[in-house]
Amino acid sequence: MIYNEDKPSGIAFPLIIILIAMAAIVGGLVMTEEHTMSARVFVPPAAAGS
């Protein structure tokens, strides 16, 4: 009689792949992030007192 060997369900490989994919997504978002400077608006002193 032939017995089927129980193969261990390895969770390490899929977990590593998922972590690498998440790191790649976060890295891509960081690389494409645009650093915008805050806008400064000049208000003349005469207009502020009205």
Structure write-up:
The chain has 50 residues and is mostly helical. It is 52% helix and 0% strand. The protein has helices at 12-32, 45-49. The mean pLDDT is 81.
Q: What structural class do helix, strand and pairing data support?
A: mainly alpha
Tell the overall outline: rod-shaped
Total helical segments: 2
- Helical content (DSSP H or I, runs of 4+): 40-55%
What is the terminal separation in angstroms? Answer: 99 Å
Largest sheet: none
Elements, N to C (H/E): HH
Return Rg in Å. Answer: 29 Å
Short synopsis of the structure:
The protein is an all-alpha fold. It is built from 2 helices and no strands.
Provide the descriptors you would attach to this structure in a database record.
mainly alpha, 50 residues, single chain, 52% helix
Per-chain topology:
Blueprint (H helix, E strand, L loop, with lengths): L11 H21 L12 H5 L1
